Write the structure tokens for this entry.
Amino acid sequence: MAPYPLANLPRGVLTLAQNENPMPPSPAAVEAGRAAVTSANIYPDPDWQAMRAAIAEVHGLDAESILCGAGSMEIIDCVVRAYAGPGDTVLGTQYGYLFLSTACQRAGARHEMAPERDYKVSVDALLEAAGPDTRIVFVCNPGNPTGTALDADEMTRLREGLPACTMLVVDQAYTEYAGPEHDSLLALAERGDSVVTRTFSKAYGMAGMRVGWGVLSADAAQHVRKLLNPNNLSSVSQAMAEAAIRDQEHMRRAVAETVAARDRFVSRLEAAGYVPPKSSTNFVLVPFADSAAAKSVESTMREEGMHPRNMTGYGLDHCLRITVGLAYTMERTAEILEEHAESGA
Ligand SMILES: *Cc1c(COP(=O)(O)O)cnc(C)c1O
């Protein structure tokens, strides 16, 4: 089994490679985490009751249909193991999230990919590639590493074009950056043939706490939960997540700042002649003339302590994925890219 391709990065610092939020979590979440630490001698709530109630309230969901995970990666992993095994196919997309491949290997399932068009998920290509062995169709929306989003109508068209025995998993790790119109997709889960996953790692600025959640039908949730570690989320993570989701204002402010910084960054790149796919996330995929150009920009950035993510693992070695970070980093990154464009390399 191939190891998951982690980036070669310095530890414990903010880079431009992991799509982390440059803003720390809500002060209310930090306070709740501090208070929870003092009861660390007691096991956490295995039913995540307070946290689930808060998510259910904020999103208008049935708490019984929500599963909480040590990051949404744990939910994705368990859903794959619940619905696919040897002889089954899990269909993702060409530039889809690489962790899916790891989850498939753990489940013994085959991982196939439908082509994307212009760095965008193609519903037609997915419907064409889905066959009778396809147990799961997995779409990251907005996509990582492309940043592009399908609208809710397209996603509904995909769901309706798939047989009821194919589980559709929509990974909405970046949806807060794409806007509230994508929230309507959470309702897909009620059908019983769809799962939607979310995370506290990006917009809520809590990547280090490892908290994600998924919404399924209440019946499917009951079965998938058997595969989760029964004490998967520490009491500190649960307390922080509960407080963080109740502080929507903090999250929206952080997202608005990132989106404004992203749009300024993209305008400068476009003025310099770059054509990045339209990002609905907190990162930008920047295509270069060829892989040598991408490599050269990556090494210039690294020399100055900035670490973009190279895209070799995705078959996009002419691209770099750049997380929207702190203002001075984005300023310097934009300058490096402008200088590169002027050099004509
Ligand atoms: C960051 C990310 C996640 C979130 O993973 P966590 O385990 O919740 O930190 C999920 N999917 C994609 C595509 C991501 O980029």
User: Anything to note?
Assistant: The chain has a mean pLDDT of 95.
